Amino acid sequence: MPQTNLPHPEERPGGARREGRTARSPVIGLTRMFLAFLWLGCTSFGGGTAGWLYREMVLKRRWLDEATFLSDFALGQAIPGSNGVKLTVQIGQRLRGAAGAVTALVGLLAGPFAIVLAVGAAYAGFGENRILQQMLDGVAAAVIGLTFATGLNSMTQSRPGLTGAILAAATVLGVGVLRWPMLPVVAVLAPLGIALALVEPRRR
Amino acid sequence: MSEGSGGALIALGLVFAPLSLLSFGGGNAVIADIAQQSIAVHHWTSEREFADLFALSRAAPGPGSMLATLIGWKVAGVSGALIATTAFYLPSALLVFGAARLWGRWRCSVWHEAIERGLAPIAAGLFLSGGIVVLHASPAGWPVWAAAIVTTAALLRWPSLHPVPLLLAGAALFGLVAVL
Fold it and tell me: What is the average pLDDT across A54-63?
């Protein structure tokens, strides 16, 4: 099991857990939020924005805890759309309501929008280039590593123990290995996970 | 690139807004549909151009792919890019916003707690699955697997490591191999 030096949620600064944002000490300013999401948008190369959000908002800034992040992510699966965009709206909404959601979303998309147009304009000059494509493969590999690390990290942090590991493994088997469609897999496993969480004694 | 006539802008909105509402499991779910619409139905791009735009959208930072943005730009310049991006992201953002508000009212109930704890491992599993599926799709084979595993191990060992140097290292290493 990977060891991380992440402190237990209860030991964190300002770490009121599930009590919600009313218990959170300083309110995060909209400008600060905008800049955080702008930075994230501009640096989250290679897709997998959810992994980048986890790293930045949960691990680094601690604006929300793992359980909240992961449940937002999972609930978001019932709603269509890019996972990064959905999570951004959810996080913005949690932190500062409607204004927060708009700020976070505009912040996230503004940078990539400008960059992708600049890249598009430059593309006529490059065309296809084998070395460039190889370099993109290298970037892709690192991004996949980020995705794996996020999944493994969050698995061990959010719900330690055998039940969590089995549920996660079943999800990987169904969606990742057997390539079953995601919706039915989640529709079966989600009620199971929730039922087990209801009967299981709380650990904390 | 013709600067956006009204008709082209409306067509972009009509293609990307419904796709926004069909992209269950993330933006990647509808890439095949975007290709079909852009190439065969609306003739916005040739197959070759679509493949290039797709690769470019992968190289740029940001959520999922900015593929919609690039196609909008190709069709109708900056206004096309704006319309396509808004159409592709706004409907799902509004949906999730409404759901998040409802969810917030439920706070503190036993169910809320059980749902959060029950769904967390499944979300973790979905993360891992996403990585596996992309690995399988990669044409580069075992070097990508190896590099992905090394990156995973590094990030687990040193969680505070910033990923950007890792991405640059990946690009440099693969680029170097291609040159040699």
Answer: 90
Q: Which of B52, B57, B155 sits opposite A116 (nearest CB)?
A: B57
B-chain CB neighbours of A122 within 8 Å are none
Q: What pLDDT is stored for residue B3 in this prediction?
A: 45
Return d(Cα A98, Cα B98) in angstroms, integer: 10
Positive or negative torsion for Cα A114, A46, B155, B24: positive
Which residues lie across from B61 on neighbouring strands? A45
Contact A148, B98 (CB under 8 A): no
Selection from A126, A196, A200 nearest residue A168 by Cα: A196
Q: Is the pLDDT of residue B68 over 50?
A: yes
- Name the minimum distance, in Å, from the CA of A110 to any CA of chain B: 9
CA dihedral for A152, A158, A160, A165, sign (positive or negative): negative
Separation of alpha carbons B129 and A73, rounded Å? 14
The H-or-E segment that residue B15 falls in is helix B6-22
**Which H or E element spans position B137?**
helix B110-137
Least confident piece of the model among A48-62, A118-132, B80-94:
A118-132
Non-local (6+) Cβ contacts of A98 within 8 A are: B97
Residue B52 one-letter amino acid: D
Q: What is the pTM of this model?
A: 0.71
Among the partner-chain residues B89, B119, B135, the one whose CB lies closest to the CB of A75 is B119
CB A193 within 8 A of CB A162: no
Residues of B in contact with A115 (CB under 8 A): 60-62
Which of B87, B92, B4 has its CA nearest to residue B44? B4
- CA of A158 vs chain B CAs: smallest distance (Å): 6
Q: Where are the domains of chain B?
A: 1-105, 107-137, 140-180
Name the average pLDDT for chain A. Answer: 79
Q: Which residue of chain A is at minimal alpha-carbon distance from B84?
A: A113
pLDDT tens-digit map of B19-44 = 888 776 666 667 777 888 888 889 99
Closest partner residue to B24 among A155, A163, A183, by Cβ? Answer: A183
